[in-house]
Amino acid sequence: MFDPLFNTSGMTDKELQQKILEMSERISRARAGGISDDIIQRMYMVMQACDDEVIQRSAAKEYDKLEDEDKCIFDTEQYLKSEEDKQKKHESPRKQIYKSGW
Fold first, then answer.
1. Nearest-CA neighbor of 13 among 43, 50, 47?
2. What pTM did the predictor assign?
3. Most CB atoms closer than 10 Å: which of 10, 33, 34, 88?
4. 5 occurs within a structural domain
5. Domain presence at residue 66
6. What is the DSSP letter of 75?
7. Which comes out higher in pLDDT, residue 2 or 30?
8. For residue 91, how far is the Cα from the chain centroid?
9. Residue 101 lies inside a defined structural domain of this protein
10. Mean pLDDT of 74-83
């Protein structure tokens, strides 16, 4: 879920984890106290925004790590627009299935 009033991009990883724990505790106390479901849903939105930011950051770190270690990540744009196409008279039919016109 997206909360337009809560910006997580300026928070550090540690702050995000602390906010997730804090919101989890608040939700538990709110449920026990009989607080309105609308307010609890709003708390879930904040917690989910933090969780999404953590997942996005970890995925970006993992991608950078894989990109540095392994050159086996398939780059479709580079494959389709490679210079070797200009040197060949006939293109492999397997490559044509990736072309946007096919």
1. 50
2. 0.61
3. 88
4. no
5. yes
6. -
7. 30
8. 36
9. no
10. 66
